[in-house]
Each structure stands twice: as structure tokens, then as C-alpha cells.
Predict the structure.
Amino acid sequence: MREDLLPSEPPVQLISADGSAKTDETYAAPVPERLVDAYRALVRGRRINEQCNALVRQGRLAVYPSSHGQEACQVAAALVLADGDWLFPTYRDSVAVISRGVSPAEALVLLKGDWHSGYDPVRYRVAPQATPLATQLLHAVGVAHAAILRGEDTVVLALCGDGATSEGDFHEALNFAAVFGLPVVFFVQNNEFAISVPLARQTAAPSLAHKAIGYGIPGRRVDGNDVAALLAVLGEAVDRARAGGGPTLVEAHTYRMQAHTNADDDTRYRGRSEVKAWEDRDPLTRVRTHLRGSGALDDELEAEFAAEAETTASLLRDAMNTESELDPEDLFRFVHAERTPQLRDQWRLLQDELARAGEESR
Amino acid sequence: MSIVETTELTASAQEELPVLTMAGALNLALADAMDKDPSVLVFGEDVGTLGGVFRVTDGLTARFGEQRCFDTPLAESGIVGTAIGMAMNGMRPVVEMQFDAFAYPAFEQIVSHAAKMANRTRGTVRLPMVIRVPFGGGIGGVEHHCDSSEAYYAHTPGLTVVCPATPQDAYGLLRAAIDHPDPVIFLEPKKLYWGKAAVDTTVPAAIGHARVARSGTDVTLVAYGTSVGIALDAAAVAETEGRSVQVVDVRTLTPCDDATIFAAVRATGRAVVVAEAPGFASVASELSARIGEHCFSYLEAPVRRVTGFDVPFAPPKLEHHYLPDVDRVLDAIDSLHWAD
């Protein structure tokens, strides 16, 4: 029995919900400067979530799956990676994508409806946000496998939710990564719900992290609202992967504070008292209390971070309130490297329609 | 080596072209591509030590090492999904689905990701990958080993679908597929794996081009894969009955070479499309519809289709009733409103 592969009970925590430091036998707390950086990103992440919700209400975004309450996971996923590493996000991970360096305007193109993805994945080393569940985990494994074959020390961090762990591709991805010993960190944000379906309907395992031992890889559980613990646990998994130690499954226990998207009504499947209870475990409040207590964070820094977050929100508003110039020819432009004769004909058909519509409106 | 010697070698090579099975031609194409480009990788189920259940990857692991040709866990979605990641990161993976119907677990990865990645990313991430699929019947195979699954792929924008009918095209088109910048579904007709012919590896093949396999003036048979041989056999019989039959080998199902097919049909005024997949909503239907739309004023008769029936592929002892054969093609030709 490989006891070392099993996750800890309870999940790793380095800052309690009340902001006090906790010691852990395995994981050291990040240095204060790193936590201040994380808090800065958290403030920005929370503001992005709020702004995007507002933009949906204003009809500027088609939909927004908010990571409100999960910002510590979002921020940590981006902060533990080196420049050459890859991030594989899902639709709920816009804050992680932006924290990785993608501009807010580019990151929200999918939800604005201008195109299916708005940023260059190779430039940012961020894959397009995946909408189907768990499919991106296999792409992450392939990128990691190619990196090994090319002699590169790239680490790939792949995000998914608790619901995605029920998909076949989750299994295939962990198994491939384990068999080939690939540098992948599988990071599950267990936020308790897959739209309306609770975790108990996804698994009978003691925890999602326990699944790791079935693949012969380490499984780790971490408090998903404790950014210090997340940085430590994910950072260790990234280091192990880079050193040739293979993949790790990290399960962060967190909570989706809002409905699945703005189109969802979560009052149909969960009580308000349950949601309310998680407010006391808010990922921003906790690290803020901790840093204020230690003196690493003061009014001046807080004002600076708030102003930065406002700048991001303002950029988002401007970008989403601007009607993009969309070119209908783009529909045909990228499907094949060389446009097929059939697509040339179909573009001519649409061009003709557009020309006639233009004449009629004159 | 001097230029003169090279020329002499080439000349003698042309005189003695190797005679290869289609499986052998595919094997040579993989080896030549791997030799030329270190980013070409081969992986799948049983493709390593065993050399593939059809031996198409025979010897590749021994020659190129386990990093270049390797067995994976038994999981088709995993094979295609990781190939997508490989292609995102600079590799040119060539993966094998062991049989047509065993590719279905990979369907989501193929249609939602391989096919859409370039479009989703506005061309910044193209996926140069080949998914080889041994396909079709006529080999006495049991259930789930004989599907003609081409319509699923041909219907999906973003995929290029190729199907050779000769060892020569198997070699040339697989090399072209590996060089292609976008995902290619490479359909290998199982029944043709062991048929032999001379292969000239110096003749390049291009995706998107049909081939007139036999000239004729009275009627055009449009076929691909195993059905090309059926069409050629039918043409030979028809000739003895006084009809001059032209045969077009489609070769690339998407993008379809409309120009060659339409020109061939317009020249004869009659057309029969032959394919062994169930006919409803099939590639044969699409070819028939395109010919009807674009060649209407040249046609002396409606376009006929000779296809498999709309039933699950037949068990081995009944497949001869299911598969299009020479008589069924000749009957279709006879029905084309002849004056005589």
C-alpha cells in the first residue's frame, strides 16, 4: 500500500477561516510578499467576477459562469506556473486566465459572443477555455508528453470541476499521465455542485483526491479558500512534475457561491443557510485578515489594489460595451489552412446576400 | 554521391518499382515520414511491439525507438485527445484507431476538438495530426469490425477525410496527410490491405484530387475505397456488353474534388455513385446531390446510388448480400434511361 499517495485528512490549511496561521507538517507557508501578491490578484479576481455579472445583466455578455468564492483557486493556479508552463482552463476559469496574463478584453471574447476564443493560446500558454467537461485534460496530457519528447521542462496545470471527475476523459487523462510519468498537475476545484447536482451524486469515493491512488499517483486535498495552502500544495505538485516526479491530483475543497451561471436558479436545489455558511470562509477576507494582522498589508496597499481592480473593471466595461467590428468572412477563414472550393463558393453566396442587403438598406 | 549516380539510381528504381501490399505501402509511408521529420510520432493500441493488428506499423518501434512509436493505454478518446495536445505542442502525431467502430469513444475529441481547434483559435493553433481508421467490410469480420463510418467525419466541418483505393495512393496520400496542416481522418479499406501493386514513392499525391481510374464515354461510376474495385470490375463487364464505363476514384471525401467529378459526369451524361456505407444521409448521398445540382442539364437520367442497406453491418455469412457488388452496379447502369 502506497500510503504516501493518499491525501491528508482534513485538507491542507495554512490560514484558518479567522485569519490565524496554522502549521502543517508537510507544507510551509508562502513568504508574506507572495501572499500580498496573491491578495492583490484576489481583489482583482473578485472585481472581475462582479463586473462580469453586471455585464450580463446589462446584456453585454451572453452568460457568465462566476468563480465567486473560488478566487483563491483561480489565482493560485496562475501564480504557481512559470512563464513556459501551460494552463488548461474551463469556462469557469476566466479569472485564472486573466491572472495568467491574458487581457480581460481577450479573455471575455467567448462570453461576449464575438468568437469562440479571444486570445492566442501559444503566446500566453493558456489553452482555449474548455466548455465540454474533462476533454481538455487529455490535451494537457498531450502537451506535457510532447514537452518531454522535446526535452523541455514544461509543466502543465489542468483545471476541472467536481462534475468533470465523472467523465471518462478524466479517467483517461489521469491514466495516460500516470503511465507515461508526465508533468501534469490535475487541479480539481470541488465546488460541491455540477449545476444542480451535488458531489454525492458524482462519487462514492472518500474524496476526489483519493482517486489518485487508483492511478498510482499522489492525491492531495487542500482548503480551496486558503490561498496560502493552495500556493503551497500546487507549488509542490508543480515542483515534483518539473523534477520528473510525474503527475499529481490536487482537490481543492471550495464552494460555488453563486448560481451555475446567470441563467441558473440555485434556490431550486440548495438552501440559503448553506450558502450563507460559506460566506464566513471567504477566500479574500481570510488572507486579508491574516496579512493585516501581520502588518504586511496596510491601508495604502489596499487602496492601491482596489484602484488596480477598478482599472481592470473599467477596461472590461469599455471592451464589452464596444461593439466589435465583426467580419462575416471570418466564418470561412480559419476552418482549413487553405480554404476549400466549397467554402469559397459558400462565402460568395453570403457576400452576395450581404451586397443585396446593403443595396436594399440604401 | 555524384549527381550522375543519383540519376542512374532513380532510373533503375523506376524500372523496378517495389510491389507492395496496401499495408506495406502505408508502413513505408509512415517510416519515410518519420525518417524525414522527427516530430512525426505514431501511437495507439498494439502499434508498438506487435506492429498493429494489420501490421501497418510493423518495425517502426524497432527502427525509431519507443519514444517515436509506442503503445498507449487502451482508450481511444485518450489517444486522440493526447494527440491533439501533442499537435498543439509541435508534434505531428499519427494515431491508429484499431477498427472503425472502436473509434467511436474518440468521437467527441474528433468532432469537438480536433475539428474545431483551428477555427476556435482563429488559426493560431492548427493541429497537424492524422487519425488512421481501418474501415469497411468484406473481410468476414464480426460485429463492430466492419463499419463504414466516413459520413460522421465527412459531415464535420474542419476535418479532411481521405480514402485510398490503391497501394500507390495509400503511400502518397498518407505522406500528404502527415504533411497536411490540419487534422486528417485517413480511412484504410481493410479489404484492400493485402492487395499488391507497384508503388512509386517519388510520385507525390495531393489531398483534394479525385482520379479518373478508367476512361469511358457512356456512364460515370463514382466510387471510393473498396468500391473502386467493384466499379472497375463492373466497367469491364459492361464493356463486353457494349457500354463504355468511366470510373472516378474520389480519394478525398472532404474537401471533395467537385471539378473532376462534375467534368467526368458531364462528359458521359449518366452517373452511378457506389459506396458500401448505408445509403441514407451518406457520402454517396452527398455526391449524388452535388452531381444532380451541378450537372443537371447534362444528365440523361437521374443519378443512381448503389450503397449498403440501411441496416447494421451484416454478419459474416450474410455480408455478400449487403455489400454492393458488380451485378448490383450493372443493374443500376441498366436503369439509366438508355435509348437502346
Q: What stands out?
A: The first strand of chain B starts at residue 19 and ends at 21. Residues 1-9 of chain B have pLDDT under 50 and may be disordered. Residues 203 and 311 of chain B are 40 Å apart (CA to CA).
